Each structure stands twice: as C-alpha cells, then as structure tokens.
C-alpha cells in the first residue's frame, strides 16, 4: 500500500507537470514565439485546459473508475511530452509553434483528467484508517520533494541537454508511470476499505508473482458477500 501510495505521488511530479506549468512561457519562447502577448495567450490556454479537464475528471472518476482514467492520463501524457520534445527541435516555424502549444495544452489536460486528481483519491482509499494520516503524509513528502527537484533543476537541465531533451526525459518517465499503474495500482471504484485491503493481501500472497487486483470478489469470504 505504501509503495503504491507514495509511488503515485512521486510519478505525479517527476513526469514534469510543474515544469510544464511554471515554465510554459520559457517553453513557448523556446518554440519560437516572440510576442509577449502571444506567450501570455498561450499560457492562459494552458491554465484553461487544466481547469476544464479537472472538472471532467470530477464527473468521470466514479463512473469510469480510477485505473482507466490513469491509463488514459499516463499514456496521453507520454505521447504529448514526446511530441513536445519533437516540436521544440523545430523552433521558429509556424508548425513547430502550433505543435508545441497543442502538446503543452494536451499534456496538462491529460494530467488533469487522471494523474492530478486521482492521485489524491487513491491516497484517501488504499490506506487503512489506523495509518491513513501518516501514510498519506509520507506520500505527500515524496511528491513535494519530487516537485521541488523538478522545478529547481528544469532550467539547469535545459541548458545542458536543451529544453527538448528535458521533455524527452519526462516522456520516458511518463512511459514508466504507465507500467507502474498497470502493476501497482488497484481499481478501487465501488470497493470497501476491507475489500481494498484484501486486494493488497492477494498481491502479497500471490505465488504467481503478479498482482491480481481484479479478483477482489474471489478474495472476499462468503459471509461478507
């Protein structure tokens, strides 16, 4: 549980969302936008995308489930970060500029529909009540430290490997986050705390070496069904 809860908090940050939001003017300038007004308009578009898709996540999280939204989010972010890296290798071209704006806005949108809000939902669901506060706080420490490292190192790293290179790194980390979601994150939609705890027990006791999160109903004793 701790590995899943802390891991999702860390992956939420190391995939570069804070760098994308905080340094979006720098990204757009690197893509070739020179006008301050155009940079401001593109930055406003980024903020608007984030707000709109957080609202979308609110309506979908209990209908679609946590894990499907995380898949959509992490896969979408991986593609957008990779495309952004490509766009930043084509500076001073209208196609590169438009592609960069689209990639940044789409990346923020995919983050806001999955990794952003669901990270907090899972932290409130997967830990038992007796340890929830401590475990959630520990996960948040990992997330905040990761956020600080990404935010403080972005400009320095971009000077060494270029802004495009940094986003290729973020794309690789986002691809790893897809595997993390597949292996370590359970689907908690409609599950009680007891059922969620049994799912993690099933993972620990599995002799096949894989997570059997889909077998929660099989793990529940007959009298509890």
UniProtKB/TrEMBL annotation:
<dbReference type="InterPro" id="IPR036259">
    <property type="entry name" value="MFS_trans_sf"/>
</dbReference>
<dbReference type="InterPro" id="IPR005829">
    <property type="entry name" value="Sugar_transporter_CS"/>
</dbReference>
<feature type="domain" description="Major facilitator superfamily (MFS) profile">
    <location>
        <begin position="1"/>
        <end position="189"/>
    </location>
</feature>
<feature type="transmembrane region" description="Helical">
    <location>
        <begin position="68"/>
        <end position="90"/>
    </location>
</feature>
<keyword id="KW-0812">Transmembrane</keyword>
<feature type="transmembrane region" description="Helical">
    <location>
        <begin position="135"/>
        <end position="155"/>
    </location>
</feature>
<feature type="transmembrane region" description="Helical">
    <location>
        <begin position="39"/>
        <end position="61"/>
    </location>
</feature>
<feature type="transmembrane region" description="Helical">
    <location>
        <begin position="161"/>
        <end position="181"/>
    </location>
</feature>
<feature type="transmembrane region" description="Helical">
    <location>
        <begin position="96"/>
        <end position="123"/>
    </location>
</feature>
<keyword id="KW-0813">Transport</keyword>
<comment type="similarity">
    <text>Belongs to the major facilitator superfamily. Sugar transporter (TC 2.A.1.1) family.</text>
</comment>
<dbReference type="InterPro" id="IPR003663">
    <property type="entry name" value="Sugar/inositol_transpt"/>
</dbReference>
<dbReference type="GO" id="GO:0022857">
    <property type="term" value="F:transmembrane transporter activity"/>
</dbReference>
<dbReference type="Pfam" id="PF00083">
    <property type="entry name" value="Sugar_tr"/>
</dbReference>
<dbReference type="GO" id="GO:0016020">
    <property type="term" value="C:membrane"/>
</dbReference>
<protein>
    <submittedName>
        <fullName>Polyol transporter 4</fullName>
    </submittedName>
</protein>
<dbReference type="InterPro" id="IPR020846">
    <property type="entry name" value="MFS_dom"/>
</dbReference>
<dbReference type="InterPro" id="IPR005828">
    <property type="entry name" value="MFS_sugar_transport-like"/>
</dbReference>
<keyword id="KW-0472">Membrane</keyword>
<dbReference type="InterPro" id="IPR050814">
    <property type="entry name" value="Myo-inositol_Transporter"/>
</dbReference>
<keyword id="KW-1133">Transmembrane helix</keyword>
């Amino acid at each position: 549980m701790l590995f899943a809860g802390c891991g999702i908090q860390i992956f939420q940050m190391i995939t570069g969302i804070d760098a994308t939001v905080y340094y979006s003017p720098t990204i757009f300038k690197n893509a070739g936008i020179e006008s301050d007004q155009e940079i401001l308009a593109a930055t406003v578009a980024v903020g608007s995308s984030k707000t709109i898709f957080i609202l979308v996540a609110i309506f979908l999280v209990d209908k679609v489930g946590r894990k499907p939204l995380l898949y959509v989010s992490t896969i979408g972010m991986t593609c957008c970060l990779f495309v952004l890296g490509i766009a930043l290798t084509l500076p001073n071209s209208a196609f590169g500029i438009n592609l960069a704006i689209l990639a940044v806005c789409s990346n923020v949108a995919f983050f806001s529909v999955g990794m952003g809000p669901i990270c907090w939902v899972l932290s409130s669901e997967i830990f038992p009540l007796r340890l929830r506060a401590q475990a959630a706080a520990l996960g948040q420490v990992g997330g905040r430290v990761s956020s600080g490292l990404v935010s403080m190192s972005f400009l320095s790293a971009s000077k060494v490997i270029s802004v495009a290179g940094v986003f290729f790194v973020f794309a690789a980390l986002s691809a790893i986050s897809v595997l993390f979601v597949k292996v370590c994150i359970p689907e908690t939609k409609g599950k009680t705390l007891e059922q969620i705890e049994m799912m993690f027990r099933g993972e620990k006791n599995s002799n096949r070496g894989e997570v059997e999160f889909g077998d929660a109903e099989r793990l529940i004793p007959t009298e509890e069904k």
